[in-house]
Amino acid sequence: MVRTALSAAQARRVALGAQGIGRAVPEGAVSSRTIRALVERLGLLQIDSVNVFERSHYLPVFARLGAYDKALLDRMTMTRGAAHLEYWAHEAAFIPRASWPLFRWAMDTRRARDHADPDGFAATHAPLLRELLAVLRAEGPLPASAVEHESNVRRGPWWGWSDVKRGFEHLFRWGDVVSAGRSGFERVYGLPDQVLSAEVLDTIPDETDAVRTLVERSIRASGVGTLADVADYHRLRSDQTRSALRDLEDAGVVVPVEVEGWGRPAWMHADATVPRRVEADAVLSPFDPVVWFRPRAERVFGFHYRIEIYTPAPKRVYGYYVLPVLQDDQVVGRVDLKSDRQHGVLRVRTAWEEPGRHLDPGRLGALLLRTADWQGLDAVAVTDRGTAAARLADALGVPLVPHEAADDAEAADSPPDGP
After folding, report:
1. Residue 260 predicted with pLDDT over 60
2. CA-CA distance, 217 to 254, in Å (whole number)?
């Protein structure tokens, strides 16, 4: 097969177009049908519990569709019987309910690996695991906090999971329990036959077929990618991914491409298009598929990105919850955002322009005003930290807040709870 050649800019536009970025924002209210179609395109929404600005899974939808009613997404993901449920499809993620069987081979692999360790949790807590299954059988779906058990005591800082929570998470990884919505933001666990339809339960694809389907979905959602890019999307092994790409190439579903500056083999989905231009204004979640695989973000956008949530405040370079700023087909900056709901203010704790890029402060300011409105906040305040802070404040027509007088939330911010 003739290998297609793409310039670096073309590959960047292919990647963004495949992700649904740069498409016209719907006029009027965003419908649940539009949101569902977007999630189908992406394949999953990664979950993270940090809500200093907004929980991560809400942000990819906002970046692509603009302001929408988060209650629509909640009904699709958080309620029992919703169209989506959770699994470790990348990290913890919401996936379409029909996609759950594609990970049954991974569940079996994880169960076998965990049980093979004589000193592991599965071996040392077997009675507890049996008891948890019995509780669900008797009482129906429950969050871990609702289980009365002497082992249901949090231990340690941050995540501090109890043995009950750890037990449920092991059973969840193995597919012995599944997610049945959320209570608040706490995962609810249920037995598969309490949550899934007979059609889903009876679907047990062969591992090779399942991996091939996941790889096809990964490359479709990525547009163009290297072996590592495609494997990372669903956290597949390289050998699995390589074999599936070979099969898909033989079938004409993907085509090999050479991308300027990438220096390694790449593939593009046969249905991918090369947009002539991408017009976009977005702040991206750290866990948005556009940037979640940091080597890809650096290769595609020349953007070196590390999240600094776990970095002690004095050692942070850019801030606590820093989001990349996308303007058209370039990542041009980054902002550290906090939704100060007590005072009704979206706080820009730092604002940076990427070296060698041009950040348009007027466009960013307008985006942040729309973002504040979506968050139900009345104003945007900019702290005098970062190379773009002064120009952003000027574009917004607001005074720079001296960092000594700003709400120094960084000192109070703590690492996130588990998903």
Report:
1. yes
2. 11
Cα separation, 194 vs 181, in Å, equals 12
At residue 24, what is the residue type? A
Whether the Cβ atoms of residue 406 and residue 351 lie closer than 8 Å to each other? no
Residue 406 is predicted with a pLDDT of: 60
Per-residue pLDDT tens for 76-121? Answer: 999 988 999 999 999 999 999 999 999 999 999 999 999 999 999 9
| Banded pLDDT at 157 (limits 50, 70, 90) | very low
**pLDDT the model gives residue 403:** 81
Predicted local distance difference test score (pLDDT) of residue 4: 84
* CA 136 to mean position of chain CA atoms: 29
Q: What's the per-residue H, E or C state across the chain?
A: CCCEEECHHHHHHHHHHHCCCCCCCCCCCCCHHHHHHHHHHHCCEECCCCCCCCCHHHHHHHHHHCCCCHHHHHHHHCCCCCCEEEEECCCEEEEEHHHHHHHHHHHHHHHHHHHCCCCCHHHHCHHHHHHHHHHHHHHCCEEHHHCCCCCCCCCCCCCCCCHHHHHHHHHHHHCCCEEEEEECCEEEEECHHHHCCHHHHCCCCCHHHHHHHHHHHHHHHHCEEEHHHHHHHCCCCHHHHHHHHHHHHHCCCEEEEEECCCCCCEEEECCCCCCCCCCCEEECCCCCCCCCCHHHHHHHHCCCCCCCCCCCHHHCCCCCCEEEEEECCEEEEEEEEEEECCCCEEEEEEEEECCCCCCCHHHHHHHHHHHHHHCCCCEEEEECCCCCHHHHHHHHCCCEECCCCCCCHHHHCCCCCCC
Q: How far apart are the C-alpha atoms of 350 and 69, rounded to whole Å?
A: 27
